[in-house]
Amino acid sequence: MSAAAPPARSREARRRRLDKWLRIGLPFAVLAALVVGWDFVVTANEIPTYILPRPGLVVWTIVADFGVLGPSLLNTLLITLLALALATIGGVALAIALTQSRIVEYSFFPIAVVLQVTPIVAIFPLINIYVGNDLAKLLICAWIVAFFPILSNTTLGLNSADRNLRDLYRLYGASRWQTLRYLQLPAAMPYFLGGLRIAGGLALIGAVVAEFVAGASGFGTGLASRIIESGYRLNIPRLFAALVLISATGILIYVSLSVLSNRILGKWHESAMDRGRR
Amino acid sequence: MIANPSAAAAERPPIVTLAGVGKTFDNGTEALAGVDLSVGRGEFLSLLGPSGCGKSTILRLVAGLDEPTTGVIDWHDGVAGRAAQRARNVGFVFQEPTLMPWAKVFENVWLPLRLKGVSRADAGPRIMAALESVGLADFATSYPRELSGGMKMRVSIARALATEPSVLLMDEPFAALDEITRFRLNDDLLHLWAEKAWTIVFVTHSVFESVYLSTRIAVMTGRPGHVATEVVVDEPSPRTAAFRTSAHYGEIASATSAALHEAMGE
Ligand SMILES: Nc1ncnc2c1ncn2[C@@H]1O[C@H](COP(=O)(O)OP(=O)(O)O)[C@@H](O)[C@H]1O
Ligand SMILES: [Mg+2]
Question: Which residues of A touch B101 (CB under 8 A)?
Answer without folding.
Answer: 268-269
